[in-house]
Model the fold of this input.
Amino acid sequence: MTQLLADWSHGDDAALAELTPLVYEELRRLAHHFMEGQRPEHTLQTTALVNEAYLRLADQTHPSFTNRSHFFAVAAQAMRQILVNYAKASQSQKRGGGALKVELDEAALISPEQTTEILDVHEALERLATLDSRKAHVVELKYFGGLNHDEIAEVLKISTVTVRRDWVFAKAWLYTMNCITRPDRNDEARMTNGNQAEAMNR
Amino acid sequence: MTPARLQTIEEIFHAALDQEPDQVGAFLDTACEGDEVLRRKVEALLASHQRAGSFIETSAAGIATRIIENGQADLLVGQTIGHYKISKRIGTGGMGEVYLATDMTAGRKAALKLLPTRFTGDAERLKRFQQEARAVVGLNHPNILTVYEIGEDHSTHYIASELIEGETLRQRLMRGRMELSEAVDVAIQVASALAAAHETGIVHRDIKPENIMLRPDGYVKVLDFGIAKLAESGSRRGYGGRGQKR
Done:
């Protein structure tokens, strides 16, 4: 675990990919554990969950393991993947219908609007990452990972002011991309933004 | 669009946000130096900034947590473990998750069971499990699920086996009463599987309707030989385990 995180800090994406399932399983194990001990209406706080997962994994594997920041980064990535896979499955089941559809609708974990937003943001972020990877990280940590600006600043080793500026710009950029790729979803914005937005793609 | 271009756009965007609203036009005239495309991009972003409102301000992390809680997270879909490419999850149990996978070497479909790390973290227990699992790979009986391989990929332990179409005995029982003849047929096939396993010294340890698959063609397959051993608590139980007479 520690070695994997050390590798990742040197930009080793493969190490990150190996770490993700470990983090994910720990998150799920904890979620199960909490749900069994709590009243049904209890809602888990994401940050608390990730923190707890970190403490457990760090403790199990290496007592001197101090790299909390990277753990949060991996957790955000794991959650992004979980959301995207779920959203895709939800969309294909909506199209396909059948017995599984009922099962999914009963769960109702995610609305059609949320499904679309998650997939749109995911796709646009992949593009943003090729242009400005730090901004893509800021969005991933905040939108998918649920971290606040101070926590993001700690993870990325930048100031909170920079986090805020990155967020403001990335949000406007993603919103513009959204209007281009799904003009039907935002007629008002398209009317005003349309031609200007087209220019963004060039 | 290049990273440098995006950076230029961003600088002008932030500077424009600092202007008084009625000064923005004049500011962009100067800042964009007659580059109309650049200007349109900045204007589009400024318009988006005004309109975006609550867009992506609510983190999706809460939804992710609920998906995790409900055990509906399919993180592994599309990934490759060993030489198996995972297509979708087909079952979840106390002993791990089962995925539909493609064996890319043999070019056939397989069921891939991934063992949770809480079971594989104990080296001694894992070793005992692996010893027994290897013996199960050698079992060849029409009523015993054929295990292709026991493997490990970056500390993920998996069991690859033949893919069975059909339903578990539990699912069958939920649908309604079985005819006596049907029940006896299932019992005979299960007993036959257990007898063959006991011949080679392998004890199932966890026979239950969830571990018995009924194929549409009438064949009964017993799954998960010896895996129960892995789930036992640290204290050593006597061989034979729970609910299993020897």
